[in-house]
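Aim 2 progress update. The chain analyzed this quarter is reproduced below.
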Amino acid sequence: MPPPLPRRPVWGESAEPTPPPLPVGPPEHQTPVDPWAGVDTGGWDLPSAELPPLPPMSPTMPHPTPPATRQWSGPPAPPVGSHPVSPAAAPRPPQATGPRMPTRPTSPPTPPPAVPKQRRGRRPAAPPAAPPGWQAPQAYVPVPVRRRRRWPWLLLLTLACCCGCPAYYGFPISAQYPAQAALPAQVDDLKLRQDGRSAETARQLENEVRGEHLLAEGTFAGVYSTSGGKQVTVFGGTGFRWSPESDAEAEISRLSERYALDAPEIVDTGVRGRHERCAVGRSDGGDVVVCTSVDHGSIATGVFTRLSVADSATLLNTLRAQIIQPKA
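Predicted structure tokens:
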């Protein structure tokens, strides 16, 4: 029988023959080997230098606080687009060789401060200004802030202007126009004189009022006197007047030459839309006080003797309240 062919080596196997293993006996039958045999070990007893003593620690010196350590939570995440690293190939953290310090627990993150709620009716605070040198990104698109509508306030203001202003200026006109005039026979201690001279004076004054005030709807004139010798001449007319203040100044200026009046005085009537002027003058060698009162519906003028300016103005208001009455 022919001998067997030699075995072909396997790919990666060494072509040299492997020596047979040497027989190894049990360890208890082997002779121990001294690694320091033949080495001079007599010079190892070296004198040790004594170190200086440590200075005493101050009782107020604080003990150094060890730095806080955090537990390793794993390798950082790979950047986007890179190949993932297998757990086996990931680098391991170095192992600490010294004594391990206790891990201090981490405190939870502080929540952001709560934003106070904006109360209604107050304007929101302005946003903080951008730091100097700040530039918006290229893809940034500003979003316009929507403002609150204020149309209710604008509507109320429009209604107030459209309705309040006409009512404010229109109420005096409606209360004073139209009006009618009639001379009573007696006002307080004043009696209407019916003699021929007084009647002629009244007709002349009434015609004069008609000529000076062409738009007058009615005219009146009369002479009153008291038992004590005081005399009051009153005249005027009714009709619409747009500017009572200007008409009062014009009437007192018209009578300035006849009665030689001094500078007129403004008298407060206490009635909105009614204006009064009084001035001291002379007539028939005696002192007189001329007062005129005008509102949106009438004009009344009085010439008073033996009275002061204040008493003349008060008496004129009493006379016109009895003579002029608003129409129903």
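Residues 179-326 form a domain with the Protein Transport Mog1p; Chain A fold (CATH 3.40.1000). The chain has a mean pLDDT of 77. These observations will guide the mutagenesis experiments scheduled for the next reporting period.
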